[in-house]
């Protein structure tokens, strides 16, 4: 019989290799490769095509119960979830350390309790006294929440088995949980996977909405195996800059709803406050007459959010390699836009440092931001402030065309409501009503001419 191949898997990222190495070739962590226990190997005699039970096929149009949802008491949280917590579902919530995951979930749990449900909050990271202190600060300490500091999944499930299933179960965090039936320290791939599996099974069998907090690695993905993201129904990320007040809750995967709605919160002295109308948040402190600042009407799901894009261009005297630094936007996209401005519009950035910043710690993902970024860059380049009453949106192609984007009319309307009477965007049949307030531009060079001529 052939010798079974040995297999090593990285305990940090889950990648598999056929030989042991000191450093993982995928995530570059040291000493994380561990040999996998060989799985049962089926011999040729062992066919899987007989001996099983027949499964039932179901009709797609068979009647099924409508999805029940339960409000978490935080409207912005419910919005990001697509309408509230679904009993029997598992949610994985990732986010940088200190961004406010524990705060958000403690608040949500307290709200569920106040609305008459039972909520259990298990902290594996903090002692009960620390959580109590936070609850005091959040002014929720009177809520009869079931709070425990525990890390053993067996203890947690035994305790839960002896009480009526709660409406909400929060596990903070999955990386601190461990099971005595699985080898390895807490936080290793096998522990995280095994513990999550047991907790999710409990949640599904008992109609409990389960929230697992997940640590995030340096590159922003949820630590532990990717398979965790496949196991849960909803993956959410809690984003923001720690130095800024605003936080955005985004769902990245949602088996029960759309993934484009966001929840917006402000971190205040007494916890996270909901921001129901975020459209003006990321504009504060704008100076009218500064070159390099452009306002972009971004769309987050069904809500427009106005964001300020700032560009700074520093000419270099020496031949040093110029820097490009981006906060809040994709650096690859900036490189592309600079290349288009160089080759299609005749601008030169080769001896200039380029800095781009999205105000307020906001992260732009909307492709329609291209035109606002281009406007900010050209304005900074020519030292020509943009008109203070104008917003910019449109996607820029490699050929330098300005492409139509979704929701152009909603963007223009929201901007007008907030005092930006003019919008500059793509020309063409899909452009909003041709009015004196809308400037349609089809090619990037025309935008450059317009700005440099101080339109
Ligand atoms: P926390 O919820 O502990 O973050 P995470 O669980 O994501 O690591 O939030 C920690 C930060 O939030 C901390 O730096 C202080 C700040 N904070 C406030 O500003 N106000 C508050 O009421 C609370 C509870 C925390
Ligand atoms: Mg925490």
The name of the CATH superfamily of the largest domain reads: P-loop containing nucleotide triphosphate hydrolases
Q: Kindly, what is the distance between the CA atoms of the first and last residues, rounded to a whole number of angstroms?
A: 80 Å
Q: Helical stretch count? A: 10
How many domains? The number is 3
The CATH topology of the largest domain is what? Answer: Rossmann fold
Give the strand order, joined by hyphens, for the main sheet: 6-5-7-8-4-9-10-11-12
Name the average pLDDT.
Answer: 87
Name the hetero compounds present.
Answer: thymidine-5'-diphosphate, magnesium ion
Approximately what portion of the residues adopt beta-strand conformation?
A: 15-25%
Folded structure, characterized:
Strand 5, helix 3 (128-137) and strand 6 (146-149) form a beta-alpha-beta unit. This protein has 3 domains: 1-41; 75-276, P-loop containing nucleotide triphosphate hydrolases (Rossmann fold, 3-Layer(aba) Sandwich); 281-452, Ribosomal Protein S5, domain 2 (2-Layer Sandwich), CATH 3.30.230. The mean pLDDT is 87. Strands 6-5-7-8-4-9-10-11-12 form a 9-stranded mixed beta sheet. It has a 4-stranded mixed beta sheet with strand order 13-14-16-15. It is globular. It is α/β, with parallel strands linked by helices. The chain has helices at 75-81, 101-114, 128-137, 153-161, 189-206, 227-231, 331-345, 370-382, 408-417, 444-452, and strands spanning 8-10, 16-17, 33-35, 90-95, 119-123, 146-149, 168-172, 209-214, 234-239, 246-254, 262-268, 271-274, 293-300, 303-315, 324-327, 352-358, 390-392, 395-396, 402-403, 422-426, 438-441. Helix 8 (370-382) runs parallel beside helix 10 (444-452). Thymidine-5'-diphosphate is lined by residues 95, 97-103, 134, 137-138, 267, 269-271.
